[in-house]
Design goal:
The protein is α+β, with helices and mostly antiparallel strands and about 160 residues long. It is about 30% helix and about 30% strand. Strand 4 and strand 5 form a beta hairpin. The protein is elongated, with a radius of gyration of 17 Å.
Length: about 160
C-alpha cells in the first residue's frame, strides 16, 4: 500500500483530492478519561468552581472539529455540515466517555475531525478539574465508524 502523504522523493505532501467526487461523509470517534471519585462526583454534581465541565468541554470539542486542519498539518480544510459531541458518565469505572460525530459533503473524510473533537473535549475536562486531582488518564481515543468515500464504510 502506498502512503499518500509522501511524494516519490519521500517529501510530505497534502493529498490532491481535486479529482474526487463530492459525497456525503460521516465519522464517529470516542474516548474516555478516568478520574478519581472526587472528580467524578464534582463533574456529575456540577459543583466544579470553573463551571459546568461537560457543557464547556462539549463546546470546546465542537470548536476543535472546526480547527482540525490548523492542528494536523496534512488535513484538508473542510466545510462541516454537522458536529455533535455528547458524554456518558460511567460510574462503575469512574470514567467520562466522549462521543463525537462529524458530517460533511465533500471530497475527503471527517475521521480526523471526529478524533480531534473527542481529544479536545477530554483535554478540556482535564483542564477544568485538574485543581481537584491531576491523576487522570485519557485513553482509548479511537474511530468507531465512518461512512462514505472511496474506502466505504468502516466499523471498529
Amino acid at each position: 500500500m502506498d502512503l499518500t502523504h509522501f511524494d516519490a522523493q519521500g517529501n510530505a505532501r497534502m493529498v490532491d483530492v481535486s479529482e474526487k467526487e463530492i459525497t456525503h461523509r460521516a465519522a464517529t470517534a470516542e474516548g474516555r478519561i478516568a478520574v478519581s471519585d472526587e472528580v467524578f462526583a464534582a463533574v456529575a454534581g456540577k459543583t466544579v468552581k470553573k463551571g459546568d465541565v461537560l457543557t464547556v468541554a462539549q463546546v470546546a470539542g465542537i470548536m476543535g472539529t472546526k480547527r482540525t486542519s490548523e492542528l494536523i498539518p496534512m488535513c484538508h480544510l473542510l466545510n462541516l455540515t454537522n458536529a455533535s459531541l455528547t458524554f456518558e458518565l460511567l460510574p462503575e469505572t469512574k470514567e467520562i466517555k466522549a462521543i463525537c460525530t462529524v458530517k460533511t459533503d465533500g471530497k475527503t473524510g471527517v475521521e480526523m475531525e471526529a478524533l480531534t473533537g473527542v481529544s479536545v473535549a477530554l483535554l478540556t475536562v482535564y483542564d477544568m478539574v485538574k485543581a481537584i486531582d491531576k491523576r487522570m488518564v485519557i485513553r482509548d481515543v479511537h474511530l468507531v465508524e465512518k461512512h462514505g468515500g472511496k474506502s466505504g464504510d468502516f466499523f471498529f
